[in-house]
Amino acid sequence: MHKLGRSHRDKVQQFMTITGASEKAALQALKANLYKRYKDPYTDMILVDGITLLCNDIQVDPQDIVMLVLSWHMKASTMCEYSKQEFFTGLQALGIDSLGKFRERIPFMRSELKDEQKFGEIYNFAFGWAKEKGQKSLALDTAIGMWQLLFAEKQWPLVDHWCQFLQARHNKAISRDTWSQLLEFARTVDTSLSNYDAEGAWPYLIDEFVEYLNENGIISNAQSMTDWSKK
Amino acid sequence: MSAQKKKAFQIEAFKHRVVVDPKYAEKTWKILEHAIHEIYNHNASGLSFEELYRNAYNMVLHKFGEKLYSGLVTTMTSHLKAISSSIEAAQGGLFLDELNRKWAEHNKAMQMIRDILMYMDRTFIPNTHKTPVHELGLNLWRDVVIHSSAVQTRLQAILLENVRRERSGEVIDRGLMRSISKMLMDLGPSVYQDDFEKHFLEVSADFYRLESQDFIESCDCGEYLKKAERRLNEEIERVSHYLDAKSEVKITNVVEKEMIENHMHRLVQMENSGLVNMIVDEKYEDLGRMYCLFRRVPNGLVLVRDVMTSYIRDTGKQLVTDPERLKDPVDFVQHLLDLKDKYDKIITSAFSNDKTFQNALNSSFEYFMNLNSRSPEFISLFVDDKLRKGLRGVTEEDVELVLDKVMMLFRYLQEKDVFEKYYKQHLAKRLLSGKTVSEDAERSLIVKLKTECGYQFTSKLEGMFTDMKTSQDTMQGFSARHGADIADGPMLSVQVLTTGSWPTQPITTCNLPAEIRGMCEKFRNYYLGTHTGRRLSWQTNMGTADLKATFGKGQKHELNVSTYQMCVLMLFNNADRLSYKEIEQPTEIPASDLKRCLQSLACVKGKNVLRKEPMSKDIADTDTFLFNDKFTSKFFKVKIGTVAAQRESEPENQETRQRVEEDRKPQIEAAIVRIMKARRVLDHNNIVAEVTKQLQSRFLPNPVVIKKRIESLIEREFLERDKGDRKLYRYLA
């Protein structure tokens, strides 16, 4: 059962006294209040304004990656909106029933990104979430934005080159396969590409990226980067 | 006899022992010894065989075999020593003669001695495991005569000297050599080998080493090979005449090694006379000789083949990348065929049809032909030329020959699907313009292509032929029905093409002249009347028309033009001058086609039935066109339409390339799906290999393209990556 903070407990008590409801129901009602606070006046969903307000309340920048983690918990289907179901799923999963709780859970959500397994899930979730509804692929700009966000956490040294390469050479949407394989690539292939296997069935875009790095003499740079970091 | 009583005649056994004379053995031996002396001194006639035999027999019987045997050895030995001396004494050339004679005598003597000592040979000797008489005679001869130091060295020297003399052209006594040689063999193969053959081979090696060095400095390749061949044959002949047969392979090995193997590379690469020069100058005899000689040494043919292959590849590569050559595709292909003929001839007549050479030739052709991506187009153009005019008046067999040769080149193509595309285009033009020399030849080629590539390759092509035939029938039906009402108007001939069998055409617009429209409508109605549910669209960019034109001074000509050109010209029945716009509007012909059309009507010498103002080369929107009253031509029929297939311009080529690439994508995907459906799970490299195998009869798929298709199929959820191993793919039912 949730540990209720003092002021919180008071509120709940208050609620229970006024309405005569059980603790569980009281908590549900508090969650519903939260929802009501953020939901759009015209539809039964939380839209951009609501999300902005939420971010304000929990003192988190809307661009902060923690919002992605939150959306993952909610199993949100698309960015910039939460359905009622999704909102409640998220609250439930995180054990949140008040703003205070919400704020408390932020550091926890950040820490989840450090977990290898969870990061992978969040990363792969991000694709579906960030793409347009009804599209199969992710628009390049959005993808780049997401990658920069995600790899700031995970520290993949080649991320900037990757984004540059895409803008120079590809200019098309990113497929799901490419998205998920990129994480594999970042995880398994070292920055000097010494263990890159050309026969490794990497998506062709990644093969082209390697070619691009070789052509532009970036590999040796990357090598010296890793050498430095070892010192 | 008288009847007197006689004393009984009794035979009594010997009552006394027969005393064997103690000196009996010695006495008997002396008799035999004497006989041996006499035999060796050629006095055998005085001897009684029977008596001698009996003596020998008795000695053995009375257990004096040992004495007899050792006596024989001693006697023979001393005689042979004497013989040996006499041989040694012989001077110079007489040495061999003497040796040979003495040997013959010795053999005769031994024969006689053996006959006399037959009993000992058959009983005492086997029992005591001693050497039989005949063999003893040989061994003694060997040890006492041949291996006496003086004789041995002299014999070897003289034999080798004789061979040397013969090699430098002198005549020697071969019979004598043969006898000596046989003698050595009789003495035992090791005697022949150690006393003669070994040294013979050594000396020969030195001889040929020197000679080959000399030749290689002074002769060109062809001459050298002739000399080597001659020497080789000489040695073979030498062996057959006076050496043991087993020596043949050994001496030929020596010659092969010294004369050929050691100089292999230098010979083949020899400037101005080596292998390449022989090929270029078609020196069949020299090439044949080289093949026969080099076949005898390890890696000889490998060397020849490799040099030939790299030459063919280099010259082939030059040919297909030479821009001058590529200007005329028909000539280019003819050149390829001539080249192939040339090499085929070399392989059949000089290289005894060696399969490995044939394979090397094939792989070389495959290599360089595919260096030029236009090869498929050019081959199709070549065929087009042949089927349009080249094969006119040629016998059926010769037609088959030409087509078979073309098929041979076709097999070398890696991009057969590109060929198919062009072939279809060119065939369409031929069929529609009625310009094919022989329908049998066309069909024959289709059959060959079908045999080579399967039904799928040619089914559409056959569809085209069917359409032509069906159209004929349709026209007959149409004439029969409407014969009367169309008799006055222009003569219409329609070919109905099934979309899908024919090369895809862009959709064109064009307003046909009124005179034609009526007719066309009639046909359309007729056709749709008998084929409900179909849609017809006039392909105005593909038709032709024959117009009867009368010019200024009354000269009449028949103009053979394209449909577009007809539309343009018909306008001039109602006006003598028209601006570009005034032509464009009523005809609605697309701009680029119209410009090309007007160009061919107004700007080509000898075909300018229209005049243009201004007289510039290119057609501008602002130009004006006039009917050329003053047009003349020495021909009644003037052909203006461009119908013949031509080498594509660069941009057109690019376009075709793109279309081919586009066509390949679904084929690759279909192959991937087929494979994955059967295998369910397969790793990346194996998919690439399988796909390549499945498609190789049409084209060589690019592994990168295959990868992209796999990713596309993943996106469309036909396949997925295995969760555990990212190199594995699974088929999603």
Your description of this structure?
Chain A: It holds the Pfam family UBA_4. Chain A: InterPro entries: DCN-prot, DCN1-like_PONY, PONY_dom. Chain A: Neddylation of cullins play an essential role in the regulation of SCF-type complexes activity. Chain A: This is Defective in cullin neddylation protein. The complex is a heterodimer of chains A (231) and B (733). By secondary structure, chain A is mainly α. Chain A is built from twelve helices and two strands. The longest helix of chain A has 16 residues. The radius of gyration of chain A is 22 Å and the shape is elongated. Chain B has 733 residues and is mostly helical. Among the domains of chain B are: 145 residues, Cullin Repeats (5 helical Cullin repeat like, Up-down Bundle); 130 residues, Cullin Repeats (5 helical Cullin repeat like), CATH 1.20.1310; 96 residues, 2-Layer Sandwich (Ribosomal Protein S5, domain 2), CATH 3.30.230; 81 residues, Arc Repressor Mutant, subunit A, CATH 1.10.10. Chain B contains 31 helices and nine strands. In chain B, the strands form three sheets. Chain B has a three-stranded mixed β-sheet. Chain B has a three-stranded antiparallel β-sheet with strand order 3-5-4. In chain B, helix 3 packs antiparallel against helix 4, helix 21 runs parallel beside helix 23 and helix 22 packs parallel to helix 24. Chain B is elongated. At the A-B interface, helix 10 of A face helix 31 of B.
List the helices and strands and how they pair.
The complex is a heterodimer of chains A (231) and B (733).
Chain A: H1 6-19, H2 23-38, E1 45-46, H3 48-58, H4 66-74, E2 82-83, H5 84-94, H6 99-112, H7 116-130, H8 140-154, H9 159-170, H10 176-188, H11 204-215, H12 218-230
Antiparallel strand pairs in A: 1-2
Helix pairs in contact in A: 1-2, 4-5, 4-7, 7-8, 7-10, 8-9, 9-11
Chain B: H1 24-40, H2 49-61, H3 65-89, H4 94-116, H5 118-122, H6 124-128, H7 133-146, H8 149-167, H9 174-187, H10 189-218, H11 221-242, H12 247-260, H13 264-268, H14 275-280, H15 284-294, H16 300-321, H17 323-326, H18 329-349, H19 355-369, H20 375-390, H21 396-412, H22 416-433, H23 439-453, H24 455-486, H25 514-530, E1 544-550, E2 556-562, H26 563-571, E3 577-579, H27 580-587, H28 591-602, E4 610-613, E5 624-627, E6 637-639, H29 650-679, E7 681-683, H30 684-695, H31 703-715, E8 719-721, E9 728-731
Parallel strand pairs in B: 2-6
Antiparallel strand pairs in B: 1-2, 3-5, 4-5, 7-9, 8-9
Helix pairs in contact in B: 1-2, 1-3, 2-3, 3-4, 3-7, 4-7, 4-9, 8-10, 9-10, 10-12, 11-12, 11-15, 16-19, 18-19, 18-20, 20-22, 21-23, 22-24, 23-24, 29-30, 29-31
